[in-house]
Automatic annotation (TrEMBL):
<feature type="domain" description="Glycosyltransferase RgtA/B/C/D-like">
    <location>
        <begin position="59"/>
        <end position="219"/>
    </location>
</feature>
<keyword id="KW-0808">Transferase</keyword>
<feature type="transmembrane region" description="Helical">
    <location>
        <begin position="201"/>
        <end position="219"/>
    </location>
</feature>
<feature type="transmembrane region" description="Helical">
    <location>
        <begin position="156"/>
        <end position="189"/>
    </location>
</feature>
<keyword id="KW-0328">Glycosyltransferase</keyword>
<feature type="transmembrane region" description="Helical">
    <location>
        <begin position="16"/>
        <end position="36"/>
    </location>
</feature>
<feature type="transmembrane region" description="Helical">
    <location>
        <begin position="282"/>
        <end position="303"/>
    </location>
</feature>
<dbReference type="InterPro" id="IPR038731">
    <property type="entry name" value="RgtA/B/C-like"/>
</dbReference>
<keyword id="KW-0472">Membrane</keyword>
<keyword id="KW-1133">Transmembrane helix</keyword>
<feature type="transmembrane region" description="Helical">
    <location>
        <begin position="309"/>
        <end position="326"/>
    </location>
</feature>
<keyword id="KW-1003">Cell membrane</keyword>
<keyword id="KW-0812">Transmembrane</keyword>
<feature type="transmembrane region" description="Helical">
    <location>
        <begin position="250"/>
        <end position="270"/>
    </location>
</feature>
<protein>
    <submittedName>
        <fullName>Glycosyltransferase family 39 protein</fullName>
    </submittedName>
</protein>
<dbReference type="Pfam" id="PF13231">
    <property type="entry name" value="PMT_2"/>
</dbReference>
<feature type="transmembrane region" description="Helical">
    <location>
        <begin position="111"/>
        <end position="127"/>
    </location>
</feature>
Length: 499
């Protein structure tokens, strides 16, 4: 059974798909409202960046900070408002996937592709948080739609869309550069894609992308290319390890990120392509699905890799796998993908609402929400203590603490600083919020190290205010020591002791 491109979309199917996407997005927004999960410190960091809009930041390009700033202007600074762009953008991405699949195959393939993407376990998880992958996937899907349209008939309108999508995708996350590699591979696998590389529209699109990215390039040039260096350091990790188990672990994680059935079909096509790759559209989609997975698998072998690093593959992979399942009329597998996603969605919606009570006995770190719980209460306790002792500011010595205290003490009016690092900064706040001898004193210092002697070398007055406990779940706790610091002895430097 062959799937030919269709130009007419069945009205009922479009209406049903739109209704499902809107309903699911509304449920997800409601879930954010009823969630008790605190911001993870990465999310707090992105919010802090949004308070000082710029063309770049230490570890990431600026688009996510801009998006959070816009959401805050409309909705406010609550956790739900900060995360609200995530389900909205994923919903929009699903519509783009529908458009791509309908253009290449049929309305039926489009319906299932958009729905299966929206209910992939990794996407379900992503809709609950705000991260750089969210705008990246939207930009990737928009760029792929433009590429598909240009591949069919080069038009300047779609060339502009492609250039803008790639440029803003790079402003979301530098992994967007994989798109160019995918387009190059498509030229090797597909005559229509190869022909596109010979048109002025494609090269003009790449030029537009560079123009869109140029403010960030100039920001990096003015700041020692700090984001590029950090990205490279993050990929290198702790050096070369040459680990096949890490490759296996990364590939296993893709069953969760992409969807169990979607990634399984993708692997099956790689092992036994059979007659499917006689279809030029399927070959083109494979070219846009394979490179991110292959590149990150190689990175996992050499150093390490996170499960989400190959996330851009999800767009083409979902359409590719779904098209094959539709070709074979595997309705059971299509429904199974949706049912699995709905189950994951229900579990996470419920878990987020009772996160402060969730624990799974008998497993290590049974408080499954421990990493994202307790920051709100800790911020409140620190702010109250700081004001009670007349502190004029708050400082901490780790990125998670600084990020979270910036957000969760935002109503106190007290500035939050990062303790001076070594010569090489390790995060944005080492640059934008360093604690200095000239910072307003006294300072309330929050640290996991209880030793006052290391502070007395740099401050004439060091007063221990005792510990504060961060409750992270029914069985999880994290203790911090509080010190009131005054009378700095000179230029502040890195702290010794406590590792």
């Amino acid at each position: 059974m062959s799937l030919a491109p269709q130009t007419e979309v069945r009205g009922r199917q479009v209406e049903l798909f739109a209704a499902l996407v809107v309903a699911l997005t509304v449920v997800r927004l409601a879930g954010l409202h009823f969630s008790v999960v605190d911001l993870f410190f990465d999310e707090s960091q992105y919010w802090a960046w949004a308070q000082a809009p710029d063309f770049g930041y230490f570890s990431k390009p600026p688009l996510l900070a801009w998006i959070i700033g816009a959401s805050q202007a409309i909705c406010g600074a609550s956790e739900a408002c900060i995360r609200a762009p995530s389900p909205l953008l994923h919903g929009a991405t699903a519509f783009l996937i529908y458009a791509i699949a309908q253009r290449l195959f049929s309305a039926r393939a489009a319906f299932w592709s958009g729905l299966i993407y929206l209910l992939a376990p990794g996407i379900v998880f992503s809709t609950r948080i705000i991260s750089t992958d969210v705008p990246l996937l939207f930009c990737w899907a928009l760029a792929l739609l433009a590429f598909v349209e240009l591949r069919s008939k080069p038009r300047w309108t779609w060339a502009v869309v492609l250039g803008v999508a790639i440029g803003f995708g790079m402003l979301a996350k530098y992994a967007m550069i994989y798109f160019v590699a995918c387009a190059a591979l498509a030229a090797l696998m597909d005559e229509d894609s190869r022909r596109l590389w010979r048109t002025p529209q494609l090269w003009s699109a790449l030029a537009i992308a560079i123009v869109v990215l140029s403010p960030n390039l100039m920001w990096n040039a003015a700041n020692g290319f700090v984001t590029f260096k950090h990205t490279g350091d993050n990929a290198r990790g702790h050096g070369l390890v040459f680990s096949l188990p890490q490759v296996a672990e990364f590939l296993a994680s893709q069953f969760v990120v992409m969807g169990f059935i979607t990634f399984g079909v993708f692997l099956a096509l790689l092992v036994r392509p059979r007659q499917y790759f006689r279809d030029a559209n399927l070959r083109m989609l494979m070219a846009f699905a394979l490179p991110p997975v292959a590149i990150i698998a190689a990175v996992a072998f050499l150093t390490h890799a996170n499960a989400n690093w190959a996330a851009p593959s999800a767009i083409a992979m979902t359409i590719l796998a779904t098209a094959v399942l539709v070709m074979e009329d595997r309705r059971g597998w299509l429904m199974a993908s949706v049912v699995i996603g709905l189950v994951v969605q229900a579990v996470l919606l419920t878990g987020d609402h009772i996160a402060d009570r969730v624990t799974i006995p008998g497993i290590r770190n049974g408080d499954v929400y421990a990493r994202t719980m307790g920051w709100h209460r800790l911020g409140d306790d620190v702010a109250v203590t700081a004001k009670a002792h007349g502190a004029h500011g708050i400082a901490a010595d780790t990125r998670d603490l600084v990020s979270s205290l910036i957000y969760y003490t935002r109503d106190s009016g007290l500035p939050v600083f990062a303790w001076p690092p070594s010569i090489v900064p390790s995060h944005e706040f080492d640059i934008s919020r360093p604690l200095k001898a000239t910072s307003p004193a006294p300072i309330l210092f929050v640290t996991e190290c209880p030793l006052p002697a290391r502070l007395e070398a740099q401050f004439g007055s060091v007063t221990s205010l005792g510990p504060v406990t961060m409750v992270r779940g029914p069985t999880s706790r994290r203790s911090f020591s509080l010190f009131l610091l005054d009378q700095p002895k000179g230029v502040l430097g890195p702290l010794a002791g406590c590792g």
